[in-house]
Amino acid sequence: MDLKSLIRDIPDFPKPGIVFRDITTLLRDPEGLRHTIDLFTQKILDAGLKADYVVGMESRGFMFGTPLAYKIGAGFIPVRKPGKLPAAVHSIEYELEYGTDCLEMHQDALQPECRVLIVDDLIATGGTASATAQLVQKIGCELVGFGFIIELRDLQGRKNLPDVPIITLVEY
């Protein structure tokens, strides 16, 4: 199945010159969604990545991280924007193109030395994934790898990530 054919391109969104890769068209296709999760699972297993937890970033990382965690027999941990989690949190502030942002995870979500796979829908510059990796490593967890549905190769996000396996399904 050609996953690219299920991802809609929206030119000039959110600003002129940007081509937005819209996964809502993939999500609404039952066969495409099933194929995506099955292919993602197979690539992770083929790479020998063993994780106790899949960590997914708000919000599209939740959509793929949760079923992936189920398929590989791991728990799922959400990483959210500030103020969204009700208990005590670990947080990390990171640089964006035009300022800073912050991510949070419950303090009791992960224990030191557990194995973590970080999942999101897309890697562009790698800023959010890198910040999430720093958060996970700050706790003392072993980062086993990253998984993304889409990789925007021209933005070279991989160079901003730790040296662990990176699995992608579609490249632009």
Automatic annotation (TrEMBL):
UniProt xrefs under SUPFAM superfamilies: PRTase-like
InterPro entries for the chain: Ade_phspho_trans (IPR005764), PRTase-like (IPR029057), PRTase_dom (IPR000836), UPRTase/APRTase (IPR050054)
Similarity annotation: Belongs to the purine/pyrimidine phosphoribosyltransferase family.
Catalytic EC class: transferase
Annotated metabolic or biological route of this protein: Purine metabolism; AMP biosynthesis via salvage pathway; AMP from adenine: step 1/1
Keyword Transferase: yes
Gene Ontology annotations of biological process type: adenine salvage; AMP salvage; purine ribonucleoside salvage
Compartment list: Cytoplasm
GO molecular function, one term: AMP binding
Subunit note: Homodimer.
Keyword list, A-Z: Cytoplasm, Glycosyltransferase, Purine salvage, Transferase
Summary of the function given for this chain in its UniProt record: Catalyzes a salvage reaction resulting in the formation of AMP, that is energically less costly than de novo synthesis.
Pfam families linked: Pribosyltran
EC number(s) per entry: 2.4.2.7
Gene3D superfamilies tied to this protein: 3.40.50.2020
Name of this chain's protein: Adenine phosphoribosyltransferase
Catalytic activity: AMP + diphosphate = 5-phospho-alpha-D-ribose 1-diphosphate + adenine
Keyword Acetylation tagged: no
Taxonomy, superkingdom: Bacteria
GO CC terms of this entry: cytoplasm
